[in-house]
């Protein structure tokens, strides 16, 4: 007995989409596709190479940042980095450091302090660095891992170029004198290094916290 023929489906068949009608393949998530993504990608990868503990940076950054901003402010307005700011920075490392850092890491930080203090002393003797700048650099040294020296120098270079350009532009255009007529840095032949040193430590700890 023969079987009845199968009924034809009344549903129209779907046309096969052509290759040109398909959506273009997306870039991998790790690849930046816009300037904003490129900056974020660069910062993330830069921060990933830093060895300072990220959790310690999260705890230290809110304490260190106000001191660094104060240093930048006093150097901008008075061409002076106060000893009190240096002492507070060292006190933060001495008191809070052991609570958030591995003890060995924290102890090695004091060697950084001694080395940079000695370097700053000789640099100040030959007139290459101000006394306040040297003391602040020594106080900031324990917060920086030795293996992060090159990244920190890169950050410092960017901060120096940016702060110097902005300071000289503001002074040349007369904007600075209208904002702060009594600020010493507008008439001083020297550049207020605290304007770059303070933000350098802030940016470094912020990048470490991102990692």
From TrEMBL:
Residues 64-161 form the Prepilin type IV endopeptidase peptidase domain. One of its GO terms (molecular function) is aspartic-type endopeptidase activity. One of its GO terms (cellular component) is membrane. It comes from Palleronia sediminis. The keyword Transmembrane helix applies. This is Prepilin peptidase. Keywords: Membrane, Transmembrane, Transmembrane helix. Residues 16-35 have a biased composition (Low complexity). InterPro entries: Prepilin_IV_endopep_pep (IPR000045). The chain crosses the membrane at residues 56-76, 83-101, 107-131, 152-170, 190-210. Residues 1-36 are annotated as: Disordered. Pfam families: Peptidase_A24.
């Amino acid at each position: 007995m023969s079987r009845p023929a199968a009924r034809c489906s009344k549903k129209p068949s779907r046309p096969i989409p052509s290759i040109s009608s398909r959506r273009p393949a997306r870039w991998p998530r790790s690849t930046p596709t816009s300037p904003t993504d490129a900056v974020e990608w660069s910062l993330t990868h830069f921060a990933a190479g830093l060895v300072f503990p990220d959790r310690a940076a999260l705890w230290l950054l809110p304490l260190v940042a106000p001191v660094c901003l104060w240093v930048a402010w006093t150097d901008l307005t008075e061409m002076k980095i106060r000893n009190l700011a240096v002492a507070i920075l060292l006190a933060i490392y001495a008191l809070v450091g052991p609570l958030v850092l591995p003890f060995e890491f924290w102890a090695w930080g004091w060697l950084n302090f001694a080395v940079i203090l000695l370097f700053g002393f000789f640099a100040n003797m030959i007139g290459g660095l101000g006394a306040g700048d040297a003391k602040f650099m020594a106080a900031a040294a324990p917060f920086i891992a030795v293996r992060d020296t090159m990244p920190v120098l890169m950050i410092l270079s960017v901060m120096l170029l940016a702060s110097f350009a902005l300071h000289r532009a503001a002074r040349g255009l007369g904007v600075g004198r209208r904002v702060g007529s009594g600020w010493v840095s507008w008439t001083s032949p020297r550049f207020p290094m605290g304007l770059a040193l303070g933000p350098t430590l802030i940016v470094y700890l912020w990048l470490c916290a991102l990692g």
